[in-house]
Amino acid sequence: MAKRHVLHVMKSEWRKTKKTPAQMVTMLIVPLVSVLFLSWCMSYVRTMVDNYSAAVYLPDEETVEMVEAVLGEYYPDFSFKEGTREDAELRVHEGHIDCALVVDNIEVRILYDSSMLTSSMALKDATDMANDLIYLLEGQEYLEGAYALYPETEAIDLSTDEEKLESYFDQMAGLIGMILFLMMASNAMALSARTITGEKERQTFDSLVLCPAPLRKILLGKELVMFMEIFLSGIVGLIAAVAGMIIWNPDEFSMFRNLTGNNPAVFLVVFILLFTVTLVITGIFSIIGSAFSQAKKASLFSSAGMVIVSVAAMIPNFVSGDAVKYIPVANWTPIVKHLGKNQIEYVPVLVALAIAAGVFTVGMILSSGLWERTSE
Description:
This protein is of the alpha/beta class. 70% of the residues lie in helices and 7% in strands. The protein contains 14 helices and five strands. Strands 2-1-3-4-5 form a five-stranded mixed beta sheet, sandwiched between helices. α6 (120-137) links the parallel β4 (107-112) and β5.
C-alpha cells in the first residue's frame, strides 16, 4: 500500500514537472554546453601558456660557449650545458625542465615528457632550435662525415601512455567533475524550490495534509522525481565530457580505450559514481527545500548547498591519501584517475555509495520532520 502511494505521488509529480521538448532541451543544454566548453578550454590551455624552461646539452665546453654566443639571445628560455643524453633524461624526468636538446655525432634529439609538459611552445621552439643548431654545427669536427647533408632531428617522448593519461585526468577530471556537479546542483536547486518549497508558497500544502498518503510518502515521491531529473542532467554532462575527449583529445581517448580494453566494469564504476553524487545532491537540497516556505529564501540557502558540493569536488586538490576515495563527490577525481590506469577498485566506490545513501536517508528524515512541523 505504501509503495502504491509513493508511485502515485511520483506519477503526479512527474506530470507536474513534465517538460515540453523545448523545456527539456533547455534544461539539458546547460550541462552539455558547459562541459563541452570547459573541455575545449582545457585542451588548449597548454598552447596559451608560453612560460617554460629548456636546455641544450652539447658534447664539450668550447661548443657550449660558441652556440650560446650565437643562439642565446634568440632563445632566452634555453640554457646551454655540457652533458650527455643521460643527463638530459634525468632533468626531464625530474621535472626540472620541460624539454632538452641533445647533440651528438649523428643526431639532434629533442627529449620531453608529455605528461609533465607545461607549454606546447617549448616543443615548437625546440624544433626551431634544432634546425638552427644543425646549420650552425655543420662542418664541426664531431659532425663531419655523419651524413652527406644534415644530421637527423628526432623528437622523443619519454612518458608512457599511463603517465600521459594520468596527466590528462589530473587537469581535466577535477574541473569537469566540479562544473558537472554544480550544474546538477543548480538543477536540484530549481527543482526543490518548485516541487517542495513551491507547495508552501503556492498554498497547496494544506491539501497535501488531507491526502490519505502520509506526508513522508508524498515527500519521498517528490524526491525520487527530483533524483531522476538530476541524474539525467548528470548523464548528459558526462556524455558531453566523453564527446569533448573524443573531439579535442583523441590521442588520450585512444590510450584510455587501449588501456581499459573497453572493459564494461569501467562504465559500471562511472555510473555508480554519478549515482552517488546524485544521492548526495538530492539529500542536501531536499532539506533546504523543506526548511523554507518561500522559494526566494530557499534559493539563498541553496547557495550554501552548492558551496558544499563544489568544496567536496575540490578536496582531492588539497588532500592526498587513500581516504579521499571513500568520500562521496570527492572520490570522483581519484577513482577516474585509477580507471585511466585500468585499476578498478570496487570497495571505495561501494563505501562512498553507502555513505551517499546515508546522506539521502538523513535528508529524507530531516525533510519529513520539517514538513510535518509545518503541518502542525
